[in-house]
Write a structure and sequence with these properties.
flat, 3-stranded antiparallel beta sheet, alpha+beta
Length: 177
């Protein structure tokens, strides 16, 4: 984490070694900004998204993508996503990276890890109303494009809609509708 290089300023730097306030002031006043510095090949830094980035052949690329492409021996296919197994964005070891064929499969992996962590069973789904994980056989599941989009217990659904009907009856009775 770098701080603003201007005197008596202890805010975090956002660009060219200065904070957002000094950067905006320099633009307003037309004064010179610190020069841009080009990073050397192989030099890395931690980006705003939390992923480590590196420069290779003068181009910036996320380090986990670079490591996955090196292991694969070619560029990643279109639509492919690199998944961190331990969910630590800074851990870019080969054994911690999985190349997913699509973002849908990547989200599927995250859903299963979340279920395993929360309830101990990776196959369980989360009720969209009560937010509890349960066996998919006890849930009503709505699919969209072949993937589960919304799932809930029938009892949760009935209680939710009963409360919703009461709310609308009260609104109509008050004359606000």
């Amino acid at each position: 984490m770098a701080y603003c290089t201007r005197p008596n300023c202890n805010r975090l730097s956002v660009a060219r070694g200065i904070c957002h306030r000094h950067y905006q002031a320099a633009h307003r006043e037309g004064s010179a900004l610190p020069p841009r510095t080009k990073a050397e090949d192989g030099a890395g830094f931690l980006g705003d998204t939390g992923y480590r980035a590196v420069y290779k052949n003068g181009k910036r690329k996320a380090q986990h993508i670079f490591v996955a492409e090196s292991a694969l021996g070619r560029c990643l296919p279109s639509g492919a996503v690199v998944h961190h197994v331990n969910e630590n964005r800074d851990d870019n070891r080969n054994v911690n990276l999985v190349i997913c064929e699509s973002s849908a499969y990547h989200l599927y992996l995250h859903r299963r890890v979340r279920a395993l962590r929360e309830c101990g069973n990776a196959n369980f789904l989360k009720c969209s109303i009560c937010k509890q994980f349960d066996d998919p056989g006890r849930l009503v599941i709505f699919f969209s494009n072949g993937a589960p989009r919304n799932q809930h217990h029938r009892q949760c659904w009935n209680l939710y809609h009963r409360a919703l009907r009461r709310k609308y009856r009260k609104v109509r009775a008050d004359g606000n509708l």
